[in-house]
C-alpha cells in the first residue's frame, strides 16, 4: 500500500495555526470556567453557605482539565485536517500551554472574566504551529525476500517444504 505524500509546509502550518487557536481557546475556556467555580465557592463560603467543594480541589481540577483538553484538541484537530504525524506538535503545544498557564494563573485566579496575557497566548500558538513542521522520518518499508536469480536451479533438500514437489 502506497503512503500518501506529505502535506507541503505552508498548508500544514496554516492548519496548525487554526487548530492551535481552537485548542488554546477551548483550554482557556475550560480553565477560566473552572476557576470561576473556585471564586463562587469562596464567595458562598464567606457568606455562610458553603458549596461543598474546596478551593484547592477546584483549582487542581481546573489545571488538570485544561492540561488534558489541550493535547486532545490538538491531536484530534490535526488528524481531522488530514495530518498523519501530529506528535511533536501535541507535545510542544501541551508543554507551552502548561508554561503559559503557570506564568499567568495569578491573573485568572483573582477575578471573573480575566484572560491570560495575549502575548503569552500568541506565543503558544506560534511555537505550537511551528512545531507542526517537525516530522519523523518514516522507516523504510521491509523488503520482500529475494527470488533466486536462476529459476531452473535445483531445490536443495533443506529448502523443500511439504508443498514442493519432489525432484
General form: elongated
Mean pLDDT: 78
Helix amount: 55-70%
Order of helices and strands: HHHH
Which spans of ≥5 residues are poorly predicted at pLDDT below 50?
none
The counted number of beta strands is: 0
Q: Termini separation (Å)? A: 37 Å
Label the structural class.
mainly alpha
Beta-strand fraction estimate: under 5%
- Cα Rg: 27 Å
Q: Sketch the major β-sheet.
A: none
Tally of DSSP helical segments: 4
Task: Provide a concise account of the structure shown.
With 167 residues, the chain is mainly α.
Your description of this structure?
The protein is mostly helical. The chain has helices spanning 9-46, 55-80, 87-110, 118-131. α1 (9-46) packs antiparallel against α2 (55-80), α1 runs antiparallel to α4 and α3 (87-110) packs antiparallel against α4. It is elongated and about 95 Å long. The two termini are 37 Å apart. The model has no long low-confidence stretch (mean pLDDT 78).
